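Obj: model holo form, ligand = adenosine-5'-diphosphate.
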Amino acid sequence: MSGPVETEEVGPHDELVEQLTETLPEWLPTQRWFGGKDRDVSAVRALSWTPLLDGDPLLLHVVVEVEQADRAERYQLLVGSRQHQVPDVPASASIGVEAGFTCYEATGDADLTSCLLDSIAGGVQIGHLRFEAEPDAELDTGLRAHPITTEQSNTSLVYGRQYILKLFRKLTPGVNKDLLLHRALWKLGSPHIAEPLGAISGEIDGEEFTFGMLQRFMPDAADGWVMASTSVRDLMADGSGLPPEELGGDFAGEAYRLGKAVANVHADLARALGSQEAHAAELEGSSAAMIERLDRIAAEVPELGPHVERLRSAFRKVADLPSPITVQSVHGDLHLGQVLRTVQGWLLLDFEGEPAATLAERTALRSPLRDVAGMLRSFDYAAHQLLVGQPHDEEQEERALSWARRNRSAFCDGYGKASGADPREQADLLLALELDKAVYEVAYEHANRPDWLTVPLSSIARMLSEGE
Ligand SMILES: Nc1ncnc2c1ncn2[C@@H]1O[C@H](COP(=O)(O)OP(=O)(O)O)[C@@H](O)[C@H]1O
Ligand SMILES: O=P(O)(O)O[C@H]1O[C@H](CO)[C@@H](O[C@H]2O[C@H](CO)[C@@H](O)[C@H](O)[C@H]2O)[C@H](O)[C@H]1O
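Output (holo structure tokens):
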């Protein structure tokens, strides 16, 4: 039998944890959410381990530091361990067998994960972990959870049809920006986010971490990436030769509404958290940061080499832009997988920023055009993803381009309508931000989905030649 542990006591699981740290260097790179697949793991060190359920089964909350050639990053794990009634976990979730106990990644074990929601509802503290509901939230308990299976950098569990708990995988110290921005927007009554309902946080070596965020789940919502991909597929599969606007699956109306929603969220973020004017020195800083990121990524991904010089000159132009420009809190990693279409309209998710960014980079005030650029990149991705690995086909390439052009333009129209300023009026800044995002994507794909590397690389080539 096992039950919740509600005291400061930490069970004697040192041996199990030591075994785990020996197995994890091989296992971590097999996980979708692990962001360091581009280099070997040299060592894994456990920083904290906290039994959430003790006995058989055991549910252990573990924070590890993962060492790779030039970096050490922290990750959160939920490890299940059972001697009896081992659930049927997929091979990828199995971590190993230690002293007759099967250890596995436990987010798929509903018998174990229901305690996370119950602990948030109960406001309990377990070891250093604090489980807290938001002040006005009233939560149902006893619900079973299943993990969602979309492309994700974190792991999200859906409880019944009511709640979604995101467990942050890669951890950075400080209160998570996703939670902070959701709280700020909710306080203002923004209709474009899902209600924040609770959090899991804790302290390691004197530093605060957010481990999880609970939100209202929107059961009938459609994912923006899925909707856009369906529209592109319809166009690609259509033999009639009709233009996108004459096909049933046209997405441009949605892209327009999405542009309006993003502009409204930017206005609310500025109202809640303020905005500033950035002058020449800051623009120089942005330009230098883009070039620094480019050089760092080009050193790791040789395929970027042929574009480096022209990218540098596009980034240099940012330093000479007429200033000031407005900067504020932004989403930081906006793309079609971060937006949900509900019956009330578009919702934005995941305000955490880029998974690889430092805390300072995530919380820095930025031009809102950074998010516009992120979404424009995403239209490009949606259009070109189906061509990955296919032999070159001029006609399909032209269709992909026409879909992207139409939806990028509709998005900017909507954004301009709601904000009063068409993003395309700041063409040089927008182009530099898009190129900067595409350079980031080169690193992201290289480390996470090497087969997709061609998508940002071919966009960079295209944007550079169009900008000439
Ligand atoms: N409140 C919600 N209601 C319904 N689905 C959601 C909700 N929040 C997230 N999702 C789904 O989970 C996916 C991943 O969420 P996200 O916050 O972007 O996680 P990650 O940081 O891992 O990318 C989204 O693409 C969406 O499909
Ligand atoms: O959603 P996350 O915060 O995990 O963002 C990361 O993963 C995204 C992929 O899931 C990645 O987005 C890139 O691929 C998308 C298609 O899968 C595309 O729509 C985006 O435009 C493209 O940037 C994102 O960059 C990364 O930070």
